Amino acid sequence: MIKRRLQQVIILGLVFLSIVIGYNSSVLQRIDLIAYDILITQDTANPPESIAIIAIDDASLSQLGRWPWSRSVHADLLSKLTAAKTSAVAFDILFSETDSPKGDQDFARAIAQHGRTILAMAPEKTHNPEEIKELLPIPTLAAPSDGIGYVDSELDLDGICRRVYLYAGLGDPHWPTLGLALYQSSLEAQTDLPFKKSASPSGSGWLRQIPFLIPFYGPPGTIQRYSYIDVLNGTVALEDLANKTVLVGATASGIGDAISTPVSGQHQRMPGVELNANIAAALIGKRFLFELTPTVNLLITLGLALTVLPFMYLLPRRYYPLSILFAIGVTIGLTITLFNELKLWFGPTDALALQVLFFMFLSWKRYNASQRQITKLNKEVYQQLNFDPITHLPNREMIKSQLDKAISEAQQGEIIAFLVIQLSGIKEVKNRLSISAGDSALNIAAQQIKTAAGFHYPVACLGGIEFAIMLPQQTDHSNAEQIGRRLLQLLRLPCQLEDQHFFFKPAIGISLYAQDGSESDSLINNAYTAMKKAKSSPKRELCFYSSSLKQQILDESSLVADLHQALNKDQFEVYYQPQVLNLTGEIIGLEALLRWKHPTRGPISPAIFIPIAEKSGLIIDIGEWVMETACYQAAAWNKQNDKPIRIAINFSAVQFHDDKLIEKVIHILDRTQLPPELLEVELTESVLMEDHQETIATLSHLKEMGVQIAIDDFGTGYSSLSYFKQFPLNRIKIDQSFVRDLDESAESAEVTQAIITMARSLNLQVIAEGVETQQQRGFLLSQSCEELQGFYFSKPLPSREITKLINQSLYLTPDDRSQKSD
Predict the structure, then answer these.
(1) pTM above 0.85, yes or no
(2) Phi, psi (5° rounding) for residue 96?
(3) Nearest to 57 by CA among 292, 243, 230
(4) Which of 70, 167, 446, 620 lies 20 to 30 Å from 519, alpha-carbon distance?
């Protein structure tokens, strides 16, 4: 920020310095003068017919002899002009020294006789460059004259005369310029001029007042000329000179002044007498040019400089460079309009220079803004490419590059552990609360993962609900396992959001360099494989990758192909395990359990093929077949007996969330004629927690149909009592892991007792599964657990044996050992 501010100050200082330098720059002034010359040459006009020059030209010199002539000659000329009744006559000749007495007297009488004769004076430097004196007409001639006008040219820095001062003088600007003095003496001076001579205090040196831009009528020779000798000899008719305002002066080369003017052209100068004639003609013809005051000039300059702004913002961004062209066009157009229409001269170069500087400054500002925007976008792109937008952790690409680097820097014998963590339960937060709450849950999980990993190891979000930790420079796998166990503990803690508790279900897979792969891709893929294995285990523990695990994955892949054929080839069979009343042993229900007899592999455990069926989606078709088969069988058994026997069927998460589940249940119940109240749907805690709103809606629909709902394997999850109040349940099924340890573990007994107490408070029935001993049955009976299931009464049996069992007796006693040993 400080560096950028310093740059701005430097740029502003340079701009200001450029303005100050440019304002007084001779280069800019020369450009202004060139622009003025172009305009003045385009603004010529015909001079007034009342103005004329009597030129002392080469022809006059050849006949009258060498210059200077006797003043008697000038007296003769002036007499001719008096006879011609000229309006006024000005001599652009200095008469500062005496001639012959006769010549001076003759000329003085002629001046007095004419009455409107103007004589010239001029400033002259002395031997001391700092001193100036006035060359005035001799008193003999000055006394009868009608006035005196000064002759002097004001040259600009390029040596060209464009203006004169209407008044000048030594110590006080009291002498009018020769052209003004002639105008004031002529018959044409009937109106006041728009120039007012102000009173100025006396000073020293040659002082001037009221600058006057000369509106030239054209190049030299434009104003009408008569040769001195022609007028003197009478060649020019006196009528041609009547009522004219006449200037007499030298036009021949070598005598008199020759001045460069904007209209002179190359290698051609304008005689001083014609310069004064242009001034007099402009005054007579009321043809004026005005210079703007410094204040007005400054305001217009600043205003034009700011014209870059509207063009810059009005034009599309890609046309931004055209804004300076439009601004320059406005400046040039205004200069031309002011000059041609209002006769005001405005030098455009200061405005043009400011516009260019302003444009450069704004371009620099815009460039800086663009660079800042590009930097910001680059940061955003870098953030998007390398970081997760929700947790702001490094993403898959960044952790992969870090893993590549760690592999390249690994020493001989070093181990790099890569952990992949997947969380279930986030979707439930989003469904019950909001998407933003789900994002908050992800951030909480991310913080817990970072806490478990510590500050030494990079943590990444691989996308969605998957995270990763990389542990470089390890000597063995113990630290990875320790961090993994710590992660399981932290992530299983209740997560409180908006006064509600949620539970994450983590699954962690770990791969090790270099035994599980020497490249990052293989390590990541193998960690994913291990994670999926951990996810499919009931306890959702962590899992290290191994070659045997890979073989299991390959075996699962082949099982998927076999599963596609198993249903069509009648390789599946439904077994049933009785559920009895604890006190009497009466069979009140049966749980349908799927078995697969593979033609080559033999019986395959449901713990192996059910997860594979869920992953492949085949569980939907298989589950529908199990439900229909079990319902048909249950309907048949109920027709044979007076007392109803319910059938319990396990629904997997995939099957339960099938959009057509309700439709299928209705269809099967209708087709099998099984009463809905004799169908019990068993769901695990994890299924209830996956999609809260959808789960409640589906369960409510089933409950309205009369179908009973039970929670299977209760106690293995992390649900709370308040959580279950929201679901329309009928029964809780205590997991066999607690029942199995009742004889040996006081903790299992306490948990079992707590579950039964909780169920009573919710008006739910309880059934314990996995009962294998009389002691277990006795403890459950003491806790008023009314329903039991387990090998103590019967193992799962095929339908034909269950039929025999039901036909023999609806009661199972502890002495029925034959049922358990078959």
Answers:
(1) no
(2) -90, -5
(3) 230
(4) 446
